[in-house]
């Protein structure tokens, strides 16, 4: 059978030019929403990592201003990731200083550049759709569960402590129980009003008003939440939210203050082997999280654009080198911020860039204003983002696709919920691979009787590619053939038959006569059997 050469995409082809100004009316509000979501997350990850508070914000700025333009994704947003938090905590313990971790971050970025040039990004194409959808649904559930304590005013937990087992000794569900026992009435009131506004803002009835479509609901919520807190201070001072329930951004009054706050790599750690181990760990985990995130973002993209994975690794590599050089945490493409970007109507990478500019501007000029935003209002925004990721319709649609799609999906959801992102994806991937192998085993051959020729004839026709994975199924089928049958083993359509399968067929040749089976073999090579 002639082999057909498959065309591969040319790396010289350029994507059509995009007029970024034409979508600015949608990208600017979306960038604002992403900024409002990203700011507390950047701060929370810094706290959870044991790093300087400024480090997470610097990472968000690098991800927004630099990586957004280097990336081939139009909607992905990069910044510090919760998935790397435990690695940073461990790295600080191993290396002994944040400056050493910065050195490892630079090295991790260089590793990502090597992976990008080596075209290793193709690994992102091997994650089944059911697992990616499960990851999105799980993140939506986690966002909802993790924001309930902040919604109720229990802010002892870090804002993006996304793992089931938390840094403060609680777990996802015990933290919710503790929050219900210590509700802060002011936070709950502001959170409930904010949630009501966001739901109403997205309703069909309200969206008919033209000015509503021009103003993002998150901006309305943030503004009104500050006003509500001021009014609570006048009407019921005991309900007014204090510092611990508000955004906490370091105040920088001048450029010299900013430089004084920065940390820089300690290059003396290049002589220590442990630095390279940390760098390798950061580089590999950050690359996997990025590839998973951009694959998920592509599925959420209304325009169904495809992100070049190798270019994404290169963009992330440059971002981590720069972030490490100026005192930032390691960065990845982050699904939470990217989802907020898509849900807010972002169209191009301009929205991610604007979010980076706003992070920089807030750091330099707006800290006093932003530090008045209640965390419960931001939690309400994330509750809506979480619900849009894990809508009930997603579960029912996966169910209708059958067990091979539903089981990997639901296993991914549950595993991520009770472990973390990468472990959960691995569990889901294992189940997905099981169904792939099962389908491969079942498609190794076509088995049927041929009554038109002889009621005693069985025709087994092998498929085009027969690998060692098919051996068990073929051996089982041959063993179950009744005595006295006429068997036709047909390899006429096969381009490749693995040696293990050929050996199993050769064993059947030897035993067929003993079972009074008349065996006819077509186009299948005989192989020697050891010991015969």
Instruction: Tell me what portion of residues adopts beta-strand conformation.
Output: 5-15%
Major sheet: arrangement of strands: 3-4-6-8
- What is the count of distinct domains? 2
Largest pleated sheet: 4 strands, mixed
Report the structural category: alpha/beta
Walk me through what this model shows.
- The chain is of the alpha/beta class and 532 residues long.
- The protein has two domains: 23-429, no CATH class; 445-522, Transcription Regulator spoIIAA, CATH 3.30.750.
- It has 22 helices and eight strands.
- It has helices spanning 24-49, 53-70, 85-95, 98-117, 129-152, 172-181, 185-201, 204-207, 210-214, 217-235, 255-261, 273-300, 309-325, 335-343, 350-364, 367-370, 375-389, 392-400, 403-418, 421-442, 471-479, 499-512; strands spanning 77-80, 331-334, 445-449, 457-462, 465-466, 486-490, 496-497, 518-522.
- It has a four-stranded mixed sheet, with no helix packed on it.
- Helix 14 packs across helix 17.
- The two termini are 33 Å apart.
Outline:
Helices cover 60% and strands 6% of the residues. With 532 residues, the chain is α/β, with parallel strands linked by helices. The strands form three sheets. A four-stranded mixed β-sheet has the order 3-4-6-8, with no helix packed on it.
Relevant terms:
532 residues, alpha/beta, Transcription Regulator spoIIAA, four-stranded mixed beta sheet, two-stranded antiparallel sheet, 60% helix, elongated, disordered N terminus, Sulphate transporter, transmembrane, STAS_dom_sf, transmembrane helix, SLC26A/SulP_fam
């Amino acid at each position: 059978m002639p082999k057909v050469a498959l065309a591969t995409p040319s790396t010289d082809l350029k994507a059509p030019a995009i007029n970024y100004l034409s979508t600015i009316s949608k990208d600017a509000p979306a960038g604002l929403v992403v900024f409002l979501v990203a700011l507390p997350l950047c701060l929370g990850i810094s706290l959870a990592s044991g790093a300087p508070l400024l480090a997470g914000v610097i990472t968000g700025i690098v991800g927004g201003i630099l990586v957004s333009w280097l990336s081939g994704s139009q909607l992905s947003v990069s910044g510090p990731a919760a998935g790397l938090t435990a690695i940073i905590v461990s790295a600080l313990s191993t290396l002994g200083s944040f400056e050493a971790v910065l050195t490892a971050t630079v090295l991790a970025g260089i590793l990502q550049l090597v992976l990008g040039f080596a075209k290793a990004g193709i690994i992102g194409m091997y994650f089944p759709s059911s697992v990616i959808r499960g990851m999105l649904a799980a993140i939506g559930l986690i966002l909802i569960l993790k924001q309930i304590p902040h919604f109720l005013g229990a802010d002892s937990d870090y804002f993006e402590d996304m793992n089931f087992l938390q840094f403060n000794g609680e777990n996802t569900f015990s933290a919710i129980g503790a929050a219900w026992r210590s509700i802060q009435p002011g936070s709950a009131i502001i959170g409930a009003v904010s949630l009501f506004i966001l739901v109403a803002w997205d309703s069909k009835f309200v969206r008919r008003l033209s000015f509503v479509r021009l103003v993002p609901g998150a901006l309305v919520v943030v503004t009104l939440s500050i006003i509500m807190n001021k009014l609570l201070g006048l009407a019921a001072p005991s309900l007014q939210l204090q510092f611990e329930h508000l955004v906490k951004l370091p105040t920088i009054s001048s450029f010299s203050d900013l430089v004084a706050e920065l940390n820089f790599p300690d290059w003396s750690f290049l002589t220590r082997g442990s630095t390279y181990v940390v760098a390798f760990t950061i580089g590999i985990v950050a690359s996997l999280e990025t590839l998973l995130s951009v694959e998920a973002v592509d599925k959420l993209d209304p325009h169904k654009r495809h992100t070049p994975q190798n270019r994404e690794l290169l963009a992330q590599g440059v971002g981590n080198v720069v972030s490490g050089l100026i005192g930032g945490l390691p960065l990845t493409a982050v699904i939470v911020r990217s989802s907020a970007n898509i849900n807010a109507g972002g169209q191009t990478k301009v929205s991610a860039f604007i979010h980076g500019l706003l992070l920089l501007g807030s750091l330099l000029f707006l800290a006093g204003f932003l530090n008045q935003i209640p965390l419960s209002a931001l939690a309400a925004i994330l509750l809506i983002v979480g619900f849009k990721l894990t809508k009930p319709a997603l579960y029912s649609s996966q169910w209708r696709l059958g067990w091979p799609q539903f089981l990997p999906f639901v296993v991914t959801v549950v595993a991520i919920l009770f472990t973390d992102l990468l472990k959960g994806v691995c569990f889901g991937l294992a189940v997905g691979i099981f169904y792939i192998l099962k389908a491969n085993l079942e498609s190794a051959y076509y088995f049927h009787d041929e009554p038109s020729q002889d009621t005693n004839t069985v025709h087994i026709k092998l498929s085009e590619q027969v690998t060692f994975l098919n051996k068990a199924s073929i051996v089982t089928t041959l063993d179950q053939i009744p005595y006295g049958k006429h068997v036709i083993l047909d390899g006429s359509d096969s381009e490749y038959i693995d040696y293990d399968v050929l050996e199993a067929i050769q064993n059947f040749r030897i035993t067929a006569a003993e079972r009074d089976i008349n065996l006819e073999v077509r186009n299948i090579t005989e192989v020697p059997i050891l010991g015969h």
